[in-house]
Amino acid sequence: MRGSLFQYAPQLQAFESGPGDAEKKLIMIGGLSDGLLPCWYVPSLGQAASEEGWSMVQPILRSSYNMWGFGSLERDVEDLSALLDFLAREREGKKFAICGHSTGCQIACHYMRSRENLPQHNISHIILQAGVSDRELEDADALAKQQENLQAARQLARQSGGGDEFLPRSACWAPVTAQRFLDLNDVGGKDDYFSSDLSEDELARRFGGFYSTTDVMIAYSSKDEYVPSTVNKQELVERIARAMRGEGGKARVVPLVVPNANHALSPLPEDPESASAEKFFVAQVREFLRDSK
Q1: CA-CA distance, 267 to 223, in Å (whole number)?
Q2: What is the C-alpha to C-alpha distance for residues 285 and 41, in angstroms, rounded to an integer?
Q3: Cβ neighbours, 10 Å, residue 142
């Protein structure tokens, strides 16, 4: 991908590709451990977006790469808000779409929940690709280890300032504080947006009333390796869509289960059908962005 690298806040950079003078900007936010080019499909999505008049912006956040373990959704929202301010002020941005992958979906949703207290920008589209629960696990050994680490994190967080202390190396593959581990893995944690056992009221508190002027696509992977086999994916995306629409039903929400798709829409040699997922998703997003407010 060719484009411009720039600094949007102290020690934070972003890369913009596509039409250099585009007033419409698609912001791509990856998940845990991601940074630039978070997914296989990003170049083709950027190309499709550019053909519809959108540039693509890939930011580095303070939680990018392996720094996620000592961050928070609130800090991510601060960075995203700073990026939007910069794009509007310095790079001709007037209309914005946000595409989150994996934990990037939580960042997008948390931004929308926090938006009334932030500088206002025209967020016309939100795309949630592979927003999944971090706490729902199928493997019994992994679940037992998670519960053990949750207990340790709770004990540490109860101490004065303990939430900012790091858990032992054995807790996670990346450095993680007690509070960040709780946010991701505890029931009702700050990152607990997409768990299948959330009630209708809990979904409404997370999604209701924030999308009346923003179109949303919820793209769930049909073969997501991070989702337990017991989860009814179509039912879950439809429940989230209903929560977003709310009682008035004003929000336009597209619930979508992507056929043959793993978590990152990557083509896998052992699964020839997986190669079709990227093309399907990119075509759906292109049409979604074309039908623009």
Answers
A1: 12
A2: 12
A3: 10
For residue 293, pLDDT over 60 is answered with no
Alpha helix ranges (H) inside 7-160: 42-51, 73-90, 103-114, 140-158
pLDDT class of 249 with cuts at 50, 70, 90: confident
Q: Which residue has the higher pLDDT, 211 or 251?
A: 211
Q: At what angle do helices 103-114 and 200-207 cross, to 10 degrees?
A: 70
Spatial CA neighbour of 173 closest among 147, 195, 202, 149: 149
Dihedral angle, C-alpha 139, 276, 54, 289, nearest 10 °: -80
Q: Report the pLDDT value the prediction gives residue 251, as an integer from 0 to 100.
A: 83
Separation of alpha carbons 237 and 218, rounded Å: 7
Question: What is the CATH code of the structural domain delimited by 3-135+194-290?
Answer: 3.40.50.1820
Q: What is the pLDDT of residues 99-137, one digit of tens each?
A: 999 999 999 999 999 999 899 999 999 999 999 999 999
Find, among 249, 252, 245, 247, the residue nearest to 293 by Cα.
252
- What's the pLDDT band for 292 if we cut at 50, 70, 90? low
**What CA–CA distance (Å, rounded) separates 60 from 7?**
10
Phi (first) and psi of residue 41, to 5 degrees: -85, -5
Question: Cα separation of 168 and 153, whole Å?
Answer: 10
Alpha-carbon span 230 to 224, nearest angstrom? 12
pLDDT score, position 242: 96
Per-residue b/e over 44-75, b at no fewer than 16 CB within 10 Å?
A: bbbebbbebebbbbbbbbbbbeeebbbbbbee
Helix (H) or strand (E) holding 17: strand 12-17
Say if CB 101 and CB 38 are below 8 A apart.
yes
How far is CA 9 from its chain centroid? 21
